[in-house]
Amino acid sequence: MRIAACNTDRNSPSPLVQDQAMRKKPSRPHSRSLASVLTAGVLLLASSCAWASVATTQPPLQPITINLQNKAALRNGALYTLHMCTACHSLQGMRYSSLPPILGLSKHRFKTIIGTNDRHYHDIITSNMPPSVIYAFTKILPPDLTYIARRHSPAWLYTYLTSFYVDPTQPTGTNNVVFHNVAMPDVFAPLQGLQKPILIEGLRYGSPAKIAIGVRPLTRGSMTPAQFDRTARDIVTFLYAVAHSHQQERFRLGPWIIALFLTLSVLTYLLYKLYWRRVMTSEERWWKINKQ
């Protein structure tokens, strides 16, 4: 007896492979969506826990209005900044030669009234104290004031300058409302006087703690509160002008540039209408061909 052989294609899968493929369970898209939802929930929970662990009660910032057209305030702020703050800090985003136009002074009057701290007129404004000496006393290099003025708002700077208070637990004996455990000493204490904090129960990095939200006068300084307040505002105004040295020029050129763009827009629209008057549509083209 002859057994007829099945003429099968070698490339076709075997019956065993076909049976295993039929027994495979179909994919479940719902399980994938459920897994993505669970993953998102876990990430959201982790982020909320991380936020709660670093939550800190923020003290209110004192409002301040910056007027870059007030040249008297800019000059007063420049005097205090260049003769007090640059003892440790630097202003490497500015040169002495760039300050007269901002302050509304000539070169001669700038050298006479404010001066360059025995530096060259075109030098960058750097600290008067060598970095090695500063580091030996504070163990940290003071940040550049240009960077600080660009990073923080004027309200933060004004609140920082006026909110130093006595803290015996600190190495410098002082602390700050908006900068807890600040390494800078209260250099304005001779002018403003000493202050004590206004403490409330709050959170610091997620843990309960005493939070300073303000200050009260403890001793009197050489200035009245109104005089020191004006001085602090002038310093902030000068720092803001240095950090945004081209803002006055932008305000002066801004209206002219906007007017130029508006004029170009009108001319471009008129040119667009002129071009499309000479472009024939398909209907007009076929009408002229049939007419000829």
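The above is record 1. Record 2 follows with the same two-line structure.
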Amino acid sequence: MATRPRECRARVAAVRALAAEILEADLDMLEPPALAFEAGQWVSVPFGPKIVRAYSIASSPRAPARITLCADVAPGGIGSRWFHALAPGAEVGFKGPLGGFTLARDETRRLLFVAEEIGIVPVRSILANLYAVSGTREATLVYWARDPSWLVYGGELAALTRRPSGLTYRPVVREAPAGWDGERGDVAAVVDRVVDDVAGVVAYVAGGGGTIDRVRQVLMAKGMERKAVKWEKFW
């Protein structure tokens, strides 16, 4: 049963820069002492009447006493400034958990994940929880970024493929440096190329609205039902 969202308080434990414009923060829960959530959910931070910003939880629900948030702070708005100002020891308030971009416990279909840059955050949580629980499960992840520095969880995702997890990881970049051995180009074109059969597949797509629309069109053109494509829009 889904956990009802509630007002929460936490203390900042650490803040890290994962890339030039991507920050990650660990928050130790104060009230409640542990946040029960489903992998893929998010929290909302208030900034005044009817002004909130949403941040997906990057960590696994298997460690609910400390949650990790991750954000692209390039937009420079009120949420970006808040994230920039986070410092160890500070207390923060938010509401959560929220959102339905989650993997059902009884889901048996083959899994396809498509993430665009910061859209990897809920997918990272889902995959971390999935492989901690099941050990092995057939899944494909197509992860796109403008260049390799924006593939912020790429190292740990690649590490999953080096053990018998069942994960196929396909990093994609628009601008490839010398020696890059991953995919290049548009994420929807890569999905079109690598997904041959959509029978028995459920897709999770996270990123910008344009990418979500293009990936959905590619998959539905192959015969996938609209309701088999789940999505989380970040911008």
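The mean pLDDT is 95.
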